[in-house]
Amino acid sequence: MRAIRWIRSLTAVLAFGLLATPVWAASAPATAPVQGVWVTRQVHFVYQGFTTYFSCGGLRDEIDRMLTKLGARALKLREDPCVRPGFPDPFPGVHVKMQVLVPADTHVPAASRVAAHWQKVVLTRSGADFNQGGKCELVGQFRRVFLPLFAARHIVMHSTCVPHQIMMGTYLSAEVLVPDRAAPARH
Length: 187
Known about the structure:
alpha+beta, six-stranded antiparallel β-sheet
């Protein structure tokens, strides 16, 4: 009996070490500067959740917050479809048009290029509060739909999302390409 408990303890320690390794590896120093170019991306996203429901405006605000954190610019979000404006909707949706920074290839004119670097962005932390714990389904869907639109690497997600249960501990981070300095505002 003692041997079984010891083996279970050892297995748990090893599993934790294997799960935690990518988080530590992702915090390594960023690479050398790269050249990027802004490209336009569009997506129509419809959220389907079993645990947490959003109004169309609430979903729009959550998506806007995460996309802004990833460095998207020229964001235009339109609620669509919305059956019950202002109230939780069974399938709220948003249409998103934005610009994201991607690595420039050799065919991009020098005038269109932007000096950039890779930066780690943490979208959700594992020690989040109760309100954030209910968003694990949204975070998972966001990862599948929106992260591929960015030049993202070293994506780390840990989640124990179970439908109809508030689960604490969802973590999502990625390295994304960001400009070296903010472009001057145009008047």
